[in-house]
Write a structure and sequence with these properties.
Blueprint (H helix, E strand, L loop, with lengths): L2 E3 L7 H4 L5 E5 L3 E4 L3 E4 H4 E5 L14 E5 L2 E6 L4 E2 L2 E5 L8 E4 L2 E4 L3 E6 L3 H11 L17 H6 L1 E4 L2 H41 L4 H8 L5
């Protein structure tokens, strides 16, 4: 393993303090920052199948978000997890696609769920590591799939804990804002679908609709 010092530059000091001033050469990943380590996925992540007993036939009209191999495409009357996690499409044409789950959620047949053993902060970092479909090894041709053992044996590069903690704290607010916007969009769509037919039929006036849309209980 060879070492190579980094040349002095004008990089942002706040960002630079989290990174070493030299690289190490590895056979597997080439040059990596000194102090970073290569791990098997099973070393850093809690990883297992989604609920193989549940299919989309169990979906309900409303409830808690459920993930299939196509992503968050339905609801269940219950939830299995209340945390930040990653849902991996493991069987079918979407195999390799990853989804960042949050809040109360479940994942059904044809998925693999995982999260960092460390903390939610590290799960955010882990999501960016695995989000490229090419990260995961696919088997099969007519029906692509990712085996659980292959997923657990995938190798990934992890920095020191301080870096994943800092990264998590930086991106959490961004994700929270995104999730809040998505929630507001759902509420607005429901309000539109409720009010528009009544406006068309004359059951409601525009003034009435505006008043309802501004009501906190609308």
């Amino acid at each position: 393993m060879r070492r190579q010092a980094l040349a002095n530059g004008t990089a942002d000091r706040e960002a630079a303090k989290f990174f070493p001033d030299e690289f190490l050469e590895t056979e597997e990943f080439g040059w990596i920052p000194a102090g970073w380590n290569i791990h098997k996925m099973s070393d850093v992540a809690d990883l297992t199948w989604g609920d193989t007993q549940v299919t989309k036939k169990s979906y309900t009209v409303e409830g808690y978000t459920a993930y299939s191999a196509k992503g968050p495409d339905g609801f269940l009357s219950y939830y299995d997890f209340d945390k930040v996690g990653i849902v991996l499409s493991a069987i079918g044409s979407n195999s390799g696609q990853s989804f960042l789950a949050h809040g109360k959620w479940s994942c059904i047949k044809n998925t693999i769920r995982l999260w960092a053993k460390d903390s939610d902060d590290t799960t955010f970092y882990l999501y960016h590591v695995v989000s490229a479909p090419s990260f995961w090894p696919l088997r099969g041709s007519a029906q692509p799939f990712i085996s659980q053992s292959d997923a657990r044996n995938c190798r990934c590069l992890f920095p020191e804990r301080e870096i994943t903690r800092e990264f998590g704290s930086m991106v959490t607010d961004l994700y929270r804002k995104t999730w809040d916007n998505e929630s507001q969009n759902v509420t607005l769509c429901k309000l539109r679908d409720t009010l528009l037919p009544k406006l068309i039929t004359g059951e409601l006036s525009i003034a009435d609709a505006e008043q309802l849309s501004q009501s906190p209980t609308a």
